[in-house]
């Protein structure tokens, strides 16, 4: 039986490979001189404007990429996702994060059943609970209203909700709704993270949300037990049901933990962790902090891009164009990284979320059919808000490695500031850099320009910028809950497009399992050595030596004594 075909064996892929040579002979200085080309390399939807004219691409490149999309039946793959077909074949699951933000009257099926009513049932429950909580009607064990929330979860249960929370904190409407409240996240099993998450909080006014689909995630459940002990030590065991709730489908374990199953909020197997921000994973803690109406605006923004992605022609489809350009940069031009550079401090947690979303989705070495790939997939994603990043790693981007950049700007600041007598407002100063940096990367600076500026000869090599470094610009009209949802959805679908083109499964993550398995062996060893004095056995020399060194230092408190953070 013949192996399933890889996309790299198609004529369309080979045509792009042959096209690389022509692109390498061009420079962005020359490409940017063609106004018609620049005008054509834009797309707009609901005020979101994409300019990708600073990509190392021509109209011919885009045509060839669109033909590649046809060859992989991209439209059909997108439709299969939206129709609930089990495109996550290794786990035999649908991929329906779009259903989490679909309108109430939408029909999206999984296993022949419309899942939208069930989604809205959970959202209605979240709205009712969050309204009760925020009104002060839900009180803790001592009768006081709860104003602090700690959400305990890791990976997709943490990075996505943290990104949205951080972006909403300075939105005037959201900030007004959050007055007098705190939302914190506890993800890392490192006890330092525990200490930070509860610093200056009173258990008497704190609600803990435990986010774990199976209620068995090792790090999350240890952190949950730690905060449970924090509550019990202050308020007694009867306080747990008033101060802890859950996002989980394992009601049996939820109840055994001491949480009322009526205060457990469900999500589904067809929601991958890194795509779960729009489920109870994110909607519940965010609604407790900001109120459900704000979070619903966020969901509506995500849904608007879902519709754009599903129905717009590929030529003007923002997520599709972004996905195709990423494939071009990675698999044809050979650029292994991507910098995500939002010129908005409110988006400081965007890059860490996209890092997980992208690298966990597309960091694969085999096709969806299990065939070893002969080409690179996925990017190394990193980033920092401008202008901070300019004083950090832009040096490498300008004169070191070529790293395609996503510049994200906002027309209207969440928190405008203008000082009388200043040349420009604070936001205009920020955006001056947003507009300047892509051109600096594209055009660079030649030795001839430096000579005309009378730069000393010995400094010319150091001050020369080769340019020809690709970027794209995404300009948002403002940054309210709606636009935050749109931005999330754009990146989610962009990443899916890349996976669809490469022919990989962007919705499983087997790469995280091996480390977990090995960690369980180490855990048993640590327990045996600490409690029973067992020697280190069954590991290679290096790991055995490291473990012996670690175990040689006795813990300051015996294992049979409960110790809580002192910060």
TrEMBL record:
GO terms for cellular component: cytosol. The keyword Chloroplast does not apply. It is found in: Cytoplasm. Keywords: Cytoplasm, Gluconeogenesis, Glycolysis, Isomerase. Signal peptide: none annotated. GO terms for biological process: gluconeogenesis; glycolytic process. It catalyses: alpha-D-glucose 6-phosphate = beta-D-fructose 6-phosphate. The keyword DNA repair does not apply. Pathway: Carbohydrate degradation; glycolysis; D-glyceraldehyde 3-phosphate and glycerone phosphate from D-glucose: step 2/4. Its EC number is 5.3.1.9. One of its GO terms (molecular function) is glucose-6-phosphate isomerase activity. Homodimer. Belongs to the GPI family. This is Glucose-6-phosphate isomerase. The lineage of its organism: Eukaryota, Viridiplantae, Streptophyta, Embryophyta, Tracheophyta.
